[in-house]
């Protein structure tokens, strides 16, 4: 078995709801090996996005431990986790999360600029060319279609050469045809860059394109997962 | 940190290009422009007014001493680039061939006066002209009454000590005589070069050596700072504000009023900055979350935003300074007919004030909302509903309040007034916020039943009652600021005008002999003058308080020192003068019978000498000693141009003392001929014209009125920016909800109606709060800072809520046009 890049041990997440304590994730353990692609699937409210946020270090579990790229997230404060993300992680979101005030090019440049990279503009231009948007560099998000916006987001996600790419319902806001093209692009880039892909979706067809799938039901990982 | 500067600049540039920063920049720009323009304008106007007031001193600053001023003082003045000239003042017997008379002699050096002008005529009561130099050596200029009393003509020789000096002209006006009501003897103005020849100055002579200096404010201030620690007890520095009560207090009030008006403008601009910063922060929660998600630490994210804020502040400050300067230059140009002709240029201070205002409002008002950006959770990229908690209320409001206090203090230079406004404002804001919330709840529940448009309109407000109450408060604050400035402009100026009615006394008559009382009153009537009562006056000196020599009880710096170093004009009266008010003690009829004499003392003097009711005061009057018990302390209105006295004795106390009579009267300008008649009939009388001071006070009033009106325009401008910023801050949600409603089939007419209703309701409530708050603030100001009588303003209670409804309703309808005009599809897709 190849080296594990994400490991979760007995993860659970409990929140205080107005009437009772709500268990969103219940004792989830998993291993994701480097270079693989894993889909986290389940119905709405099954805890998929919560699991993603814990694996990516965007949130902390109530109990349990996450080891990301060889480092345990337990004991790291928010800023240390941010540094780890900057180094290892890329994101693609359902709602694209592009900054309205930045052009397509500037949105892709942002992680590189945060990293202080001098070749930010060139690399961003290259990536936008790679996702087929070299003619849309100076357009603002509001001037782009949904599919184009998601392509910008994918270019941005790959800009900093992440080891792991987290994608949260990347085709959820797109029509079927556009969604399919975006999926192709995502897997293509993933293969080219040798990235580990962790993808949250309730779309079974998208899940099937991943090497493995983890099924969540009411916060618990199903037996037939992986 | 340094690595973030280029990135922050790039982000700022990109934000700017995308149009995200315009409202905040506009708000900051207005704050800086307004404060710079007002500061420049008032600075120049004040210096202009001070220059004119300096004419009454004959200089910008006067140094007086019992002995000649040492050479080092002169050298210091020269070193500080100050113009200077000398005056020696003394009393001496002057004589013609047949008569002798005690005269008040003033020997002046070349250049006198440094400010203002001396006027002379060729014959008594002839046409006057401005003197271009001082009297030639060997000649003097004398007052007309000296000629009549010595039976002389122009051209005759006057003996002053051992010197014989030719009378070359009749002296009709000295600039630095106007306020000095105590020079009872006729004036002789001579050349300082002739002084040694008179041989009248001997060791022990009572002489005042005065050094007049003029120049730049900073240079004067340097000389003052250098000299003050070196002053001996008999030496004194007098500048414009110290010298003349009426002009000084008019200038102070003018400053206060302009300062208050500028505060209102700056407060409003501050609110606009806060609102636009809050919108900026809200629109950047996603950016912050994304930056965090992309690996930027909390501190770095915050730093990136703060650097942008700083960049914006610097840009706004630079632009604001330039536009502020331009604006005041335009204002001065527009008002050139009304402003003093030789308005001095602007100094550097207004630039500093403008820059400080920009930075203080930026960090006081914009920082708290922006700090929220550092608390955005990176998880927001997955869950948009995660908004950061607002900062601690104490911190936010504390910071804004401190920023406000700083700015106010800076503008008014008046701590009690600043505290009155801040305390009033804070209490009002708290109470009014609660009241606004209650009103909203009460009215909202009722309005819901009136139809869909009402339900939607009030629903907007009731959705977040606390936020809506905040908005009502913000609009209320704008309206309140406008109302307060309007009320002050009207009432304060009216009060001052009332103190300077058209028939305010413009002449003082001194040295009227007691047996001429009837004749003089009759003569005044004949020439058409309206007169104040005639007061008996006897010069006397206060020598002891409760048996202790008075000199041991005052320090050099005490204001009381001035009163004990010279003869006071003492009087007696059976009635309390109309503009006097008893502070403590009783007037004569209400006192128990007693053996000794009694005296009523002016409050300020009593305060500085530590005199209280029951104290025994000792006076020396014409060589005899008089003891009197203090039976009351009086406050005196020194601004009213009628005779006022520090000491008023009980009837009979001054019997047997040598007295003359003193009064003031108003003589219309077209009846000035009567003066000649009067001086001929009463040759021993001294006549002082105060028309020039009156004219100047009226000028100051007029200029202040104009300036305040212009500041009001700035206040309005700032108010509209707040309105705009405030609308902008809720526009995003409105756009989204409007789009949703239209998708559900709402007609644009319905949305328009709902918007209008919402803002009209908001405006009415804001108007109600504004008028309540304005009443509170004006009451506090009148009571504690301006010493004016306050009365409720009933009309405003009707007008302001109506005006609020109209103004805010209209602005709201215009500002939310986009809600009914933009494509619903586009908006929903982005939601």
TrEMBL record, chain A:
Instruction: Using the record's annotation, list all stretches that form the ABC transporter domain.
Output: 6-226
Any one GO CC term of the record: plasma membrane
Pfam families per UniProt: ABC_tran
GO molecular function terms noted in the UniProt entry: ATP binding; ATP hydrolysis activity; transmembrane transporter activity
Residues passing through the membrane, by range = none
Q: Where found, per UniProt? A: Cell inner membrane
What membrane topology is annotated for this entry? Answer: Multi-pass membrane protein
- Name of protein: Putative ABC transport system ATP-binding protein
The family assignment reads: Belongs to the ABC transporter superfamily. Macrolide exporter (TC 3.A.1.122) family.
UniProtKB/TrEMBL annotation, chain B:
Segments spanning the bilayer are 21-41, 257-281, 302-327, 347-371, 392-411, 417-440, 461-488, 707-727, 757-782, 794-820
Pfam families registered for this protein in UniProt: FtsX
Instruction: Note the superkingdom of the native organism.
Output: Bacteria
Compartments, as annotated in UniProt: Cell membrane
Gene Ontology CC, one term? plasma membrane
Q: Major place of localization?
A: membrane
Q: Which InterPro entries match?
A: ABC3_permease_C (IPR003838), Membrane_comp_ABC_pdt (IPR038766)
Keyword field: Cell membrane, Membrane, Transmembrane, Transmembrane helix
Task: Please state every residue range assigned to the domain named ABC3 transporter permease C-terminal.
Answer: 260-378, 711-824
Give the record's membrane topology.
Answer: Multi-pass membrane protein
Descriptive protein name: Putative ABC transport system permease protein
- To which species is this protein native? Halopseudomonas formosensis
